[in-house]
Amino acid sequence: MKLDVQDSSFTKQLGHISNAADNCAKIIAKVLTTEELLDTPLELRSLGSILKDCTEEASVKYSDTKIGYDIAISSSLVLADDFLESLFDSLIENAIKHNTFTEKCVWISLSNREDGYEARIADNGEGIPDEKKKWLFDIQRRHGGMGLHQSKQIVSKYGGRIEVYDRVPMDHHLGSEFRIWFPRKR
Fold it and tell me: Nearest CA to 123 among 99, 90, 147?
């Protein structure tokens, strides 16, 4: 069925409805993907190699964003599954997608930390106010989509943790930094 509508306000509303339906479909797809998370077995994976590959793919996909990375360690073995790529892809995409500035920058790093490894994904976006940081990963309170909730589930499965900070301490207006800690495989 084809509608021939001349009313621009109707056309605009129809566009909003179409965008909302697309967003719902993306959220449902993420939820369905998460159902497989608990059943997927863990295996030995190289955290540094995967993070580097995800960074390089994002640099191609988001050519309008400056993406820098510093992977300071050569061996970084962890127990993980194929959701590790989804974790990094989602966090990098969020850093870019939620940044409304003309010049977008993302910094990605990996280093030794405690008895494991810490990956950091930082951006120069608007940041996240402290009151939102408190419940950002709370499944009962969505902050847009399902990406951060899924990220928390993935990291928990690996025995790690994910936290959000101001990129510049004490000034959330200068961007966010997600820190993901993974236990070292012995």
Answer: 99
Q: Is 121 exposed, middle or buried (0-12, 13-18, 19+ CB in 10 A)?
A: buried
**CATH number of the domain that residue 164 is part of:** 3.30.565.10
Per the structure, the count of domains in the chain is 1
Q: What is the pLDDT along the chain (186 residues), one digit of tens a residue?
A: 555 556 677 677 766 676 656 655 555 555 555 667 677 899 999 999 999 999 999 999 999 999 999 988 878 999 999 999 999 999 999 999 999 999 999 999 999 998 999 999 999 999 999 988 888 887 776 555 568 888 999 999 999 999 999 999 888 889 999 999 999 987
pTM for the structure as a whole:
0.79
Q: Which domain holds residue 162?
A: 36-183
